[in-house]
Amino acid sequence: MVFTVELDWSRLMVVNKIVVSIANDFSRYPAGRARSHGPNSGERFREDILWPKLSNPINSVLIQLDGTRGYNSSFLEEAFAGLLRAHPSASEGLEQRLTIEGKDSSVVEEIWGYIREQKARGTGS
Amino acid sequence: VIATPPVLNLDSEIDTTLSFLNNITEVVSEKGMRVRLDLTDLEVLTNDAALCLASSFVALQQATGNRKTVTTESYPNLRRVELHLQQCGFFETLGLRSRLPGPAKPDQYLWFPPQSGKSTDGATVDLLQKRLFGFDTQLDSVLSTNIYRAVTEAMANVVEHAYATIQANSILSWLNGRWWMSGYLDSESGIARIFLRDLGVGVPKSLSAKLPSDTLNRIITWTQGDGYRDVDLLRAAMIVGKSGTRLPFRGKGMQDMLRLAKRQPGGRFRVISGYGNVEIDDEGVETSTTLKHPMVGTFVEWSLPLN
Prior knowledge:
The structure holds two protein chains of two kinds. Chain A has helices spanning 22-25, 42-54, 73-86, 94-97, 105-121, and strands at 16-21, 59-64, 98-101. Chain A is α/β, with parallel strands linked by helices. The longest helix of chain A is centred in the C-terminal third of the chain and has 17 residues, at 105-121. The model of chain A has no long low-confidence stretch (mean pLDDT 91). The model of chain B is unreliable at 242-250 (pLDDT under 50). In chain B, strand 7 (179-186) and strand 8 form a beta hairpin. Chain B contains ten helices and ten strands. By secondary structure, chain B is of the alpha/beta class. The A-B interface holds A 27-34, 37-41, 69-75, 77, 104 and B 119-123, 125-126, 144-150, 152-153, 155-156, 159-160, 177, 252-253, 255-256.
């Protein structure tokens, strides 16, 4: 049996898969919202680590949550919902380009909850 | 000279304790006088009250720019009280010299002496856990993560919201974002207690200022409060945020703090702010009282049985 595959080259793009371990690449002590609130804030993670990688449309990013001492809601909300407020263009295809993994699935779900809430409110607001 | 009452605690003697603390603040900040604390008749100073006394003491010194504004050179007559205050780090916080040698045998308590900071500082929360539970912590990892989450969120609340009214160039700018924290583990009972205090505007005033009155009314109605008393506003801040309330205000931060107590069997979480004193246990049973004297700022406490 012979299969013929036709590729639509215009729709293909190279995708870089980037892995970010928050514990190794950022801090074991993530906490707080804005830079002015602490050394390992959600804003610093978002602006220095997450957005520089996501801003390139050919990148997809895998965030690994394990290895830190924990997360608080201020950090998570600012890092992930704040991404859509600070960079509305990040909203496009985010679910396809961002993967979040960790042993504690409730934190993963919490992050996606913040993202969904922010999308419902409208990005940038 | 102001003599300390024999017993200072935030339980049976909470009104006496808060009256005493407020009296020191009033004498210094409103009458412009210096205060010398006389500790000689002190028989009991629990760690929650010690943190409140230490934070008020240091803040008054800083706010007036004079370490002699509030001083103490006296020591409790009772040796066991002096030893307790020495071991829990109270003397060090107040700049007092320790007179007694350390305990001959291992103390029943593991202490995290009063610390102060102005940022959401996860490393300090990690240190607290290491001091109380050991560097090779045997603590359940979920509990450890919940402690980290709750305490860092309490810090974040202070840093973000507690001092919203302080001007950057004011003499009080030293205070802006500042928290005090301490804790201990009673190795006999297996109960850990963690305390965090700020000297900011307080939860009731902060909530009133932040929310539109119609939202506030809906919250008070939903939480079955009697009105705009501090205790009602405090209950509102602690209870609202549960999913399904459909209220526009969702106190995620307070829920992080409450969750630690709710997920630990026998756990309790207490908030004292203004005239409100609200405690919720692991089963959601709530105890609320209105105090005779206000707590300046906000005091939060977790009580966690570890067995």
